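Appendix C: a fully annotated inverse folding record. The material below is reproduced so that readers can follow the format used throughout the book. The structure is listed first as tokens, followed by the designed sequence.
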């Protein structure tokens, strides 16, 4: 007797739902994408009790006629893909015809829809039963999803707290809004208005509305065009750096996708503009000829395959580097205020409105997406908040020496600066040909030292044997973590240690530069770096070493300097490859042009 049976369609749909409908935010994604495909210009989304109770998606798209409104819930029923040929030139968000039957198999669905011609239709699907009746003829579609996962208790159990689920939904909505700036979005959580966008097609305006105005002001415009692709978007100034990688947003042909190589290119381009474990804030829109993209790789279409990936990746890398290095070296002061005007400033209420999302401990910096200005102040240790679709990039342990990239070709013209004096023993005031310059002495010194140590570490590292034997006691578990590979990594930065007894390490050689620091505590810190982290690589270890040394060896704020010392500091600063910011991305110099000063004093003739 045959054992194989063909599944009934309900079971097949539930299995498919397992792939595409993981949590409330996946319902939102699928329904909003359908609205977009239906040509909607305005989409409103409301979630209640984190989507557990109800999700409503309302659009003003083309709607469906009576026949389509029931067909839509059949598996593999789609109006978007008709031939195999089209599969390789997908222009719509959907094409698999899986979302509606999947959603309907795990919830109660009410859909009202109309093409605007004749009477509309209301379809209710509950417990596999479908009922159809006449409804109003308002053009567009409204989906109401209730009791999500009522029949899949395990999935329900795996939902996180309301705060986390809401944060996921918010993230999905933010990304959809950025992907389609030409569509107006309204998003509500439990009747609170979270954000709205105007649909005017301006990405910077959308960024200001979904994050805030301050963030938008710190974004720099980038663009690039080639024969078969183009890129445009905004990249955040280094001070916007985040403690997680979720802010590197790439939108390919209006679809938010994750392209690991592009992510690496972005991180690499920021190089030492950003400190250690921070990640840049970038929103890039890439347009590629549709036939060069394979969207049919991942059920929720989050990953794609690109034919010309390497060229795109290189272009992004160079474009970002150039923009960061071109960044007017000596800006700020009053000129910050003159930055690109925003068409529609965000209402200050929005942040307040969404602040409820963040009352819960669970949503810490990983989901601080919603309140950037607060997030900077309280850099709270990130807690694992599962943002399901965002795969962590796997950092493989060292393969080869990775250099910290610095663009050596770009040199900044040093303005003629005459130090006048110091204020608060912290900032050096200089007179230049065009106005006044304020230099943060600690930041400047950090930059100088950073580049000095970087050079030292890039060439051969001078090592010395400690004069007196240097021993470090470790716990057994820490000793076990010091694999040969990790010890090798340490030796590449000049620290050679060997096991001496079962729990003691003996330092055989250490880098000469360590002499300039508090050597004992620094060696321990280095060991911790390789012991405590699950994955370590040479490039991040080097970056850590260099920045810590730069910071520790630098003159402090509050050190009194003579005019001669100030002059030396300024001269050395301008010998750096990147004199404009410290390794943490903070500015080293602020320029008040003569024009700015005269304007502040409201002097005539300007
Ligand atoms: P897909 O989007 O992959 O085609 P779905 O299951 O998501 O599959 O949707 C099935 C079909 O239902 C779509 O192809 C479309 O014709 C129709 N549909 C779904 N949502 C809407 C909507 N909001 N407005 C108009 N038509 C819709
Ligand atoms: Mg769809």
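Designed amino acids, in order:
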């Amino acid at each position: 007797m045959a054992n194989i049976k063909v599944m009934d369609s309900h079971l097949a749909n539930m299995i498919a739902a397992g792939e595409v409908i993981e949590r409330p935010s996946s319902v939102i994604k699928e329904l909003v994408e359908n609205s977009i495909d239906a040509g909607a210009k305005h989409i409103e989304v409301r979630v209640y009790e984190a989507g557990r109770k109800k999700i409503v998606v309302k659009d003003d798209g083309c709607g469906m006629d009576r026949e389509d409104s029931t067909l839509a819930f059949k598996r593999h029923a789609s109006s978007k893909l008709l031939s195999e040929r089209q599969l390789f030139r997908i222009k719509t968000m959907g094409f698999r015809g899986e979302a509606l039957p999947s959603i309907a198999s795990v919830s109660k669905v009410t859909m009202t829809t109309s093409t605007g011609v004749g009477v509309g239709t209301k379809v209710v699907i509950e417990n596999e039963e479908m009922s159809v009746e006449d409804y109003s003829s308002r053009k567009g579609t409204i989906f109401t999803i209730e009791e999500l996962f009522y029949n899949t208790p395990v999935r329900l159990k795996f939902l996180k707290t309301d705060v986390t689920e809401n944060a996921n939904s918010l993230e999905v909505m933010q990304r959809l809004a950025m992907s389609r700036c030409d569509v107006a979005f309204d998003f509500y959580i439990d009747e609170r208005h979270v954000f709205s966008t105007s649909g005017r097609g301006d990405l910077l305006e959308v960024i200001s509305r979904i994050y805030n105005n301050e963030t938008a002001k710190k974004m720099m415009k980038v663009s690039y065009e080639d024969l078969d692709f183009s890129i445009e978007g905004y990249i955040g100034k280094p001070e916007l750096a985040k403690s997680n990688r979720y802010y590197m947003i790439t939108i390919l042909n209006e679809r938010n996708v994750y392209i690991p190589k592009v992510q690496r290119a972005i991180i690499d381009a920021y190089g030492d503009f950003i400190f250690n474990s921070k990640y840049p804030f970038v929103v890039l829109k890439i347009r590629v000829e549709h036939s060069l993209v394979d969207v049919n790789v991942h059920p929720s279409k989050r990953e794609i395959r690109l034919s010309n990936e390497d060229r795109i990746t290189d272009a992004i890398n160079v474009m970002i580097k150039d923009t960061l290095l071109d960044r007017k070296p000596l800006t700020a002061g009053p000129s910050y205020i003159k930055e690109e005007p925003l068409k529609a400033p965000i209402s200050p209420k929005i942040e307040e409105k969404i602040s409820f999302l963040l009352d819960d401990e669970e949503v810490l910096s990983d989901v601080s997406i919603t309140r950037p200005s607060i997030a900077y102040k309280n850099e709270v240790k990130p807690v694992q908040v599962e943002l399901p679709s965002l795969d962590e990039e796997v950092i493989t342990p060292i393969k080869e020496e990775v250099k910290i990239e610095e663009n050596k070709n770009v040199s900044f013209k040093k303005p003629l600066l005459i130090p006048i004096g110091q204020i608060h023993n912290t900032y050096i005031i200089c007179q230049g040909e065009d106005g006044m310059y304020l230099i943060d002495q600690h930041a400047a010194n950090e930059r100088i030292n950073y580049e000095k140590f970087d050079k030292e570490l890039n060439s051969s590292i001078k090592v010395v044997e400690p004069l007196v034997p240097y021993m470090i006691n470790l716990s057994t578990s820490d000793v076990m973590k010091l694999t040969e590979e990790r010890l090798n990594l340490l030796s590449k930065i000049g620290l050679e240690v060997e096991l001496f007894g079962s729990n003691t390490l003996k330092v055989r050689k250490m880098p000469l530069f360590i002499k300039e620091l508090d050597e004992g505590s620094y060696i321990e810190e280095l060991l911790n770096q390789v012991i405590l982290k699950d994955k370590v690589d040479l490039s991040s270890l080097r970056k850590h070493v260099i920045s810590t040394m730069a910071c520790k060896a630098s003159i402090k704020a509050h050190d009194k300097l003579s005019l001669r010392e100030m002059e030396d500091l300024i001269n050395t600063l301008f010998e750096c490859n990147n004199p404009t910011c410290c390794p943490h991305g903070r500015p080293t110099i602020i320029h008040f042009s003569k024009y700015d000063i005269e304007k502040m004093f409201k002097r005539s003739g300007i």
